[in-house]
Design brief:
Blueprint lengths: L25 H8 L31 H8 L9 H15 L4 H9 L3 E2 L5 H9 L4 H24 L4 E5 L8 H6 L15 H24 L4 E5 L1 H10 L55 H18 L5
Parallel strand pairs: 1-2, 2-3
Helix pairs in contact: 1-10, 5-6, 6-8, 9-10
Length: about 325
Amino acid sequence: MKCAYWPYGESFFHKPTGRCSDGLIMIDYFATYLKLPLIDAYLNKDGNFTQGVNFAVGGATALNTSVLKLKYNLTAITNLSLSVQLDWFKSHLYSYYVDDKSDWRDKISKRLFIMGSIGSNDYNIAFLQGKTLPDLYEMVPHVVQAIQLVVEEIIRLGATQIAIPGNIPVGCIPMYLSLFKKNDSNIYDELKCLKQHNTHAQFHNHQLQKNVVNLQKRYPNVSIVYLDYYEAFREIFQHANLFGFDETATREACCGTSDDEYKVNADVFCGNKGVPVCENPDEHISWDGTHLTQHTYHALVKHLMPSLNRGIKNVK
């Protein structure tokens, strides 16, 4: 995984930690706002999990790899799908509370579960492996259902506070802008982002929001909040200078190289030998053409915290 190599982590840790940015990522900023220490990854054998645990894995999909292959003829970059992460969570529970199930339910009920921007990797794989937009729309109900099943399972295990994020407007991401660029102004919106890709992201988000409403009705004693990553990102993208970004660099990668304006090359990605890094990552929205800079992640979380505070009972 390229995120495990330099220059990932350069701005905060001054070394790679597996986080796909120049430093911190969203879960780190959520933890900071909640006055928690940085949350260790479950796969970190030396991790301290007393305040929380991060089960996310770069490239993980909502749908199982077998479903992606058999139903859509897609090849995932990792077999660590959402269901695998759920299994890790269960194993973590059983190892911590092996003798007292009531104790684990009590502790879980006081914890906040943030699901992560799930589904984006399923669609990324489909777009990058040549699937058509109708194919992508066909995937949405299955992706949303996969998210729902995991949410319901963690509720069954005792969760009472759950945040479910939508997807960002991928049509504004340098990798997409580079791969799908055309000399046709009609495919771009007023922010010079790809219309069709953003419309698909909105469709996913609308279906997910409807699903969240249904879950809220089905589980009235559980606080379930939808986090609107899409609108938060567009707000930052549209008013980049107000958030401290260089307006001329909103559509280019900080770490990347290419002959076009997006500074990203899927064949020579950030982390490869000779790939340059911009002087000030904080001025860039995109870190490597796919992932965002820590400055962007910080701005997103700051924008989202009021929604989280309104929707979750015990978040301070």
